[in-house]
Amino acid sequence: MMDLVSNGYPVVNSPEQLGWLVPSTPDAPIDALREQLHAQGYLWLRHFFGREEVIALRRRFLNA
Amino acid sequence: MKPTGIPGEGTDPAEGIFSGQRDQSGEATRVLSEFVRTAAYESFCFHPRLWNFYEQLLGGDVYLHKRKIVRQTYPHDPRTTDAHYDLIYLRGGTDTVLSSWIPLGDVPLEMGGLTYLEGSDVFGRQMEADFAARSTSLSPEERLNAYNKHMSATGGIGKDLSALVSRYQTRWLVADYEAGDMVIHTSYMIHAATQNDSRAGRMRLSTDIRYQRIRDEIDAAGKNIGPWMICCRVAPAFQPISWPG
């Protein structure tokens, strides 16, 4: 993994101290997602929106 | 609506390549606060897929918090969001409020972004229980501001992320986020941001939106009352906000 910095402090880059988020599928059964949210405290919902929908908002903000 | 200083001349605006000139006039702050009031942004917050998802997840009618934040993070800016959990800033309402963090564009690891302290939902709940126990002698108003008394000056938990890893015996979790992804977290989950080190000099853009069941108690910040309401920040640093009592 690449080295990361936060607020000027390096983030210790070792498998014990830095890992990857667990991805979730947005169309998984909602009960399973609720359970996963409860267990993890978070959900990383990959491709929840269409890519173009989000890029359109970005473009609008950046005045394309 | 063009934030001063971005994007650079002759670049594709959607790329968001930073020109290198930061706005000194306050114009960028005005642009951000206007942007969250546009129909384009508002309708995104009410996106049918998003709304249906939260209705199903929360099991009831959904309330969208009025206070929404768009963050623009300059490349190599050393100021990033401190470790915190959201309930610190929303203590007047339900603890079942959920936050969405949506990257507006690809945010590969080199561009930093949201990082979670693994398993920290539990630590946040323990911390709150501890504050409650220490706050029994306080008035209701004082209790709402309990973090002023019992936490660090900014309400944050810390700037040195790896120091927290040692304290809690856990690790930070990161990701290569893509445009279209959404991350959601509970109000107890400890999170922070890492620095945007985009080699191409791209701005990191993201938005934070909060949802809860309409029947649960709503914090004043969610109802957006009071003159303190500034929906957005130019600086990525998480700054303390004085909530009404």
SSE inventory with pairings:
The complex is a heterodimer of chains A (64) and B (245).
Chain A: E1 4-6, E2 9-11, E3 18-20, E4 23-24, H1 30-40, E5 42-45, H2 51-61
Parallel strand pairs in A: 4-5
Antiparallel strand pairs in A: 1-2
Chain B: H1 27-35, H2 39-45, H3 48-58, E1 62-64, E2 69-73, E3 98-103, E4 113-117, H4 120-134, H5 140-144, H6 146-150, H7 161-168, E5 172-174, E6 182-185, E7 191-194, E8 204-213, H8 220-223
Antiparallel strand pairs in B: 1-8, 2-8, 3-6, 3-8, 4-5, 4-7
Structure, described:
The complex is a heterodimer of chains A (64) and B (245). By secondary structure, chain A is α+β, with helices and mostly antiparallel strands. In chain A, 34% of the residues lie in helices and 23% in strands. Chain A has helices at residues 30-40, 51-61; strands at 4-6, 9-11, 18-20, 23-24, 42-45. In chain A, the strands form two sheets. In chain A, strands 1-2 form a two-stranded antiparallel sheet. In chain A, strands 4-5 form a two-stranded parallel ribbon. In chain A, strand 4, helix 1 and strand 5 (42-45) form a beta-alpha-beta unit. The longest helix of chain A has 11 residues, at 30-40. With 245 residues, chain B is of the alpha+beta class. Chain B is globular, with a radius of gyration of 18 Å. The two termini of chain B are 35 Å apart. Chains A and B meet through strand 1, strand 2, strand 3, helix 1 and strand 5 of A and helix 2, helix 3, strand 3, helix 4 and helix 7 of B.
Keywords for this entry:
heterodimer, A: alpha+beta, two-stranded antiparallel ribbon, two-stranded parallel ribbon, 2 helices, 34% helix, B: 5-stranded antiparallel β-sheet, 3-stranded antiparallel β-sheet, 8 helices, 8 strands, 26% helix
